[in-house]
Amino acid sequence: MVHAAMSNFYEDEEIPLLLVRRAKRGPEDAHLERDKVTRAQDRETTWTQDSYAMRDRMRPFTAGGIMGFLAGASGLGVVHAMVPALVLREVAKAAQTWGVTTSIGLAVAYVTVGSCGALLGACFAAVTRYLRRFVPLLLWALVFFVSVAMLVLSLVRTYAHGAGASLAPSILTAAAAYAIIVSFELPLRMRSRSEWEPEVS
């Protein structure tokens, strides 16, 4: 009888279930969520840029200056090899003006062009410091420096009545050589992955 009474009680009793619905997000919530994501991305970007600087063995300006000096001197060497008579004639004129021998004048010319190349290479490395892939950097350097050389040659031919036409092949080749050599500032300043990655025990 007790069992029957208990059964009737549970059958007649209704237990309401609370249906909990998730509140819909309004525009303000979505805006706050986007702000959180943006701040996280900014922190990640800042950390990545700082970590790049920590991984490098030297600053981009320094590495670009070193390779720029070598690239500038090499560029003059290319012009000297392709049109030696013209280069020696101009160097001899300058050496005679300054009262030094042609050999000293040629050495001064290489140092001067190398110094200009160092300044240009340092600026190029500083501008492209976050481009950390060698092939894209090389392609960008080739396009940029060869384009600048073509622009200078076109201006010289326009305003100097065709002067410099004989130098065009050597100048363009020198610009390409400069771009190739100065691009090696990236492997010069970057440490290898094994140098900065922690050892996994």
Structural description of this entry:
It is a single chain. With 201 residues, the chain is mainly α. The chain contains nine helices and no strands. Helix 3 crosses helix 5 (102-127). The longest helix is centred in the first third of the chain and has 29 residues, at 27-55.
Short characterization:
This protein has nine helices and no strands.
How is the topology of this model organized?
Elements: H1 2-12, H2 27-55, H3 60-82, H4 84-98, H5 102-127, H6 134-159, H7 168-182, H8 185-189, H9 193-196
Helix pairs in contact: 3-4, 3-5, 3-7, 4-5, 6-7
Question: What descriptive keywords fit this protein?
Answer:
9 helices; 201 residues; mainly alpha; single chain
Q: What oligomerization state is this entry in?
A: single chain
How large is the radius of gyration? 34 Å
Low-confidence parts:
44-50
The helix/strand class is mainly alpha
Major sheet size, sense and barrel closure: none
Mean pLDDT: 78
**Residue share in β-strands:** under 5%
**Secondary-structure element series:** HHHHHHHHH
Which range best describes the helical content: under 10%, 10-25%, 25-40%, 40-55%, 55-70% or over 70%?
over 70%
Total helices: the number is 9
